[in-house]
Amino acid sequence: MKSSPGEIRWSIGDLAARFDLPTHVLRHWETKGLLRPQRDSADRRYYVEDDAYRVAVILSSKAAGMSLDQIAGLIDGTTANRHALLVAHLDELDRRQAEIERSRHLTRHALECRAHDVSTCPHFQAHVADIVAGTVVGLPMDRHGHAARG
Fold this sequence. Notes:
Blueprint: H1 12-18, H2 23-31, E1 38-39, E2 45-46, H3 49-63, H4 68-75, H5 82-112, H6 122-133
């Protein structure tokens, strides 16, 4: 990633501002091996256009639900398990999408239900009967009673 004449060079503050990130995030990604900024003669980091694209890929991948370890496998051209990593992520997305669809269905039913307590509504009970029967496990809850995320 050598800088060519006339190529844009960003300081860590400039690149962080471009993506509305605190500078410590870029430093953290560097410690995780996700970014490899170049250094000037005073040992200050500087970033070039390729780094900006890498930051955009990291942010997009995080928005898609990937962990930093998964992203490292995605952007490291030498990772042998890249395919398996992506298949596993697609499987997780499918699982989460099914959860969202179930939640959407239940929420719509509850919205239209005339019962003041939807847990007593026979139609709503039918939607959660598999959870009561133990054939489907409901969303795990954290210690505050909020749906836990994996």
